[in-house]
Specification:
CATH architecture of the largest domain: 3-Layer(aba) Sandwich
Structural class: alpha/beta
Strand content: 5-15%
CATH topology of the largest domain: Rossmann fold
Shape: globular
Order of helices and strands: HEHHEHHEEHEHEHEHEHHEHHHHEEHH
Bound molecules: adenosine-5'-triphosphate, magnesium ion
Oligomer: single chain
CATH superfamily of the largest domain: P-loop containing nucleotide triphosphate hydrolases
CATH class of the largest domain: Alpha Beta
């Protein structure tokens, strides 16, 4: 039974997780904290769904940050221009300032000379809202200067986390990197955390001498939470609600989804909520729940596949079947999976990488970051979850 103050389910599926339900990441939190407290800008990279956003929120929750800093977090995945970037940043600042009341909020809005007269009232709070349309940001660079100038004048130093930062490389306007970098390097009271999952794009942005952000940050990579730490955490969570979990089942789950944090949490969230009283959550219970999740996701996976070309679909399935696929443009690979011409595999691979459906490691092996999609795609090949676990064991020996 959950205690009164406990949430119904201790396995959170959002990236903002209360400390008591946040697993491990002690060293990573300390490293990020130390870098930020020392005034560094930081590049934080990890594969998708590993826990970047969660780590940033967790670090923002630390007492020394809460007390000493103003923190802002924007996710720019959905943006496609500098104007939209400014919209996101403006909305986040206004959202934070709204909690401090009208005075600070009006001061911020008044400082944006280029946007005067375009703010409306938010009827729910009675406070001004940052309801600025893209077309109303007529002088984006001036507005950006004014926003940064405001942060610089702020009562406390500011930390701005920009999630999915690689997105600015996709903006049609080519000089946004240069626009941001030239301003950011002049700030003294404001530091930045740039995070993202597209390692190859970020490596180019921050590691190539011709790019504006070249070597401008400290950099951190986030890997999976160690299996032992995650199993202990999961058992502790079950125990604290009076439920039982077989710890070796968590190890199996971990190996099945290769330690990707989201899929661990998703499987345990579901298993936790459906576990009958008095029963132990073991491997077969856990794997049955994953099978149910995959079936429930079928329609959205089918939609996703129907947006791909036949060559892309075939390649995605072939890579899923192999787990980590080497030499995908060899004739052996093509033959093994009944794929077409090598050139069409290359074209398909390029667009699957771009859509983030496939990822390529430094050894040029291809794989899916979306572990549930992978497990669903291997079903028609007759690969059950138990068999995939076995294969994962073999490939790590
Ligand atoms: N330390 C943690 N303890 C428990 N759950 C976590 C932890 N970190 C992440 N998670 C879980 O993993 C999920 C994914 O984490 P998060 O959104 O932080 O990843 P991300 O790397 O930012 O992913 P994306 O690349 O998709 O933005 C979260 O929704 C949460 O369920
Ligand atoms: Mg994220």
């Amino acid at each position: 039974m959950a205690k009164k103050s406990q949430p119904l389910n201790p396995f959170f599926l959002s990236s903002s997780i209360p400390d008591a339900f946040f697993c491990d990441r002690k060293e990573e939190t300390e490293s990020l904290l130390r870098l930020v407290l020392n005034g560094n800008n930081v590049l934080l990279m990890s594969p998708r769904r590993m826990g970047k956003s969660g780590l940033i929120h967790h670090m923002f929750n630390r007492p020394e940050i809460k007390k000493g800093y103003n923190t802002f977090f924007i996710d720019i995945y959905e943006t496609s221009s500098l104007e939209e970037f400014i919209q996101k940043l403006g909305q986040e600042i206004v959202g934070k300032l709204s909690r401090k009341g009208l005075g600070p909020l009006s001061a911020f809005l008044k400082s944006l000379s280029g946007l005067r007269g375009v703010f409306s009232m938010d009827p729910s709070t009675g406070l001004p809202a940052f309801s600025v349309g893209i077309g109303e940001i007529l002088h984006p660079e001036t507005t950006l200067d004014e926003i940064f100038a405001y942060l610089e004048r702020s009562d406390k130093p500011c930390i701005v986390a920009i999630d999915e930062f690689q997105k600015i490389a996709d903006y049609e306007q080519r000089n946004v990197e240069a626009i941001l970098r030239s301003r950011i390097q002049l700030l003294h009271n404001t530091s930045f955390i740039f995070s993202g999952s597209e390692r190859s794009i970020l490596a180019q942005m921050f590691g190539s001498a011709s790019r504006p952000f070249y070597q401008s940050t400290a950099s951190m990579s986030l890997g999976p939470i160690p299996c032992q730490a995650y199993s202990e955490f999961a058992s502790r969570m079950f125990k604290s609600y009076g439920k039982q979990l077989d710890e070796s089942a968590v190890t199996d789950l971990y190996n099945l989804v290769q330690g990707y944090t989201y899929y661990l949490q998703r499987a345990l969230n579901e298993s936790f909520s459906l576990l009958p009283a008095g029963q132990i959550c073991d491997r077969s219970f856990l794997f049955d729940r994953i099978d149910e999740i995959l079936t429930a996701n079928s329609d959205s996976y089918k939609d996703l596949l129907s947006a791909l070309t036949p060559n892309q679909r075939a390649l995605l399935s072939a890579v899923a079947v192999e787990g980590r696929a080497m030499n995908i443009t060899s004739s052996e690979f093509a033959k093994r999976h009944g794929l077409g011409a090598i050139s069409s595999i290359q074209t398909a691979a390029r667009s699957l990488l771009k859509r983030q459906l496939l990822t390529k490691d430094p050894q040029k092996r291809y794989y899916l970051d979306d572990k549930f999609l992978e497990l669903w795609l291997i079903r028609p090949a007759g690969i059950s979850l138990d068999l995939r676990l076995e294969q994962n064991h073999q490939s790590t020996i």
